[in-house]
Write a structure and sequence with these properties.
The protein is of the alpha/beta class. It contains 12 helices and 12 strands.
């Protein structure tokens, strides 16, 4: 295993590589608020199976550069293509979780000749669900800036363990107060895991990067049904300040607060015809201990996956929540390897 900082798209990105040089390359893109450490359980399994893994910290996180200013999905995707270019990889498998999936989708849909197949884990393509209330909060300037400055350590504790001391503030200061509910189905993170992520997210430049990702790279659009446009919806762009007002007023009280939001209307006409796997935290959609293989449908969030990926396999992870690559690594690894071997 080797970690190095490389030049990509005008910045320096920290990348860990492992596995045989002639193995099929697999690009693993982490989510928020994680780093490449997220994939510590997948890397050995992939290497043992003969794959060559390439595991970056995305810009703003971990040991990668943290340049100031707004960021876009196109920029984040170009960062990842630059990583592939550095390692002379013409075509790779792309695996992305959470924000890694958002970035990965943009790579997959815009650089299709560079990706042989993709696995997207508890993530999304271009439609935001109102159930993810933090998407509105991030645009309510300056609440996120104040929150991360004061509560970044407690935020990490809450996200990965379900509790913190002191407890996080409630609305409107934070979307992550846990009074009366749990953000994690199980306490899966070890003390070491929590400390690793605390250290990584203690940098104020990472706070700024997180805010920029959500505020600038996900421009929310209202979706108006229209059978004459791609994907069946006409999109009306909202400013960040308008979206922030939705949060401040309260999602249940604002007429837009329970709407699905589109943030990539420029991609709605595109399709990726190669094999795609969508894994989702089972607790969201099904109950019980058995894996689900149904492709959920019935609203714009679910339907986006089948629209963009005609050759789609869906798997619900039993007994695990959003962070299942870390919470349920054996199931995740088995499912991923089976998909790659097909």
């Amino acid at each position: 295993m080797e970690t190095q900082r490389i030049d990509s798209n005008g910045i320096r990105i920290s990348v860990t590589t492992d596995g045989p040089s002639d193995g099929t390359p697999v690009l693993l893109i982490h989510g928020f608020p994680e780093t490449s450490y997220e994939w510590r359980h997948q890397v050995p399994a992939l290497v043992d199976a003969g794959y060559r893994v390439i595991v970056p910290d995305t810009r703003g996180y971990g040991e990668s550069d943290k340049p100031p200013g707004p960021v876009s999905r196109a920029t984040l995707a170009a960062d990842m293509v630059g990583v592939l270019d550095h390692f002379d990889v013409d075509e790779a498998v792309l695996v992305g979780h959470d924000w890694g999936g958002i970035i990965g989708f943009k790579v997959v849909i815009d650089y299709q000749d560079r990706i042989s197949r993709t696995a997207l884990m508890d993530t999304l393509c271009t439609v935001w669900t109102p159930a993810a209330i933090h998407g509105f909060w991030f645009k309510a300037r300056p609440l996120p800036e104040h929150f991360f400055a004061e509560y970044h350590q407690q935020f990490i504790e809450t996200i990965f363990t379900g509790a913190s001391d002191p407890e996080l503030p409630d609305w409107p200061a934070s979307p992550w107060n846990v009074s009366g509910r749990r953000l994690t189905q199980n306490r899966w993170a070890t003390d070491e895991d929590v400390e690793v992520y605390k250290r990584a997210f203690s940098d104020p430049d990472s706070h700024a990067a997180a805010i920029s990702y959500y505020r600038h790279a996900l421009p929310f659009h209202r979706m108006h049904a229209d059978e004459h446009v791609a994907g069946g919806y006409r999109c009306e762009r909202l400013t960040s300040s308008l979206v922030g007002e939705v949060w401040r007023r309260g999602l249940n009280d604002h007429p837009w607060g329970r709407e699905f939001m589109e943030y990539g209307p420029e991609d709605r006409h595109k399709r990726f015809d190669k094999p795609a796997l969508w894994m989702y935290g089972n607790s969201r959609l099904t109950t019980g201990d058995a894996a689900s293989t149904a492709v959920p449908s019935g609203n714009p969030f679910f339907d986006q996956f089948s629209m963009y990926f005609p050759d789609l396999t869906a798997v619900g992870v039993p007994g695990a929540g959003h962070f299942f690559p870390e919470e349920a690594p054996d199931f995740t690894n088995r499912t991923l390897l089976e998909f790659l071997a097909r």
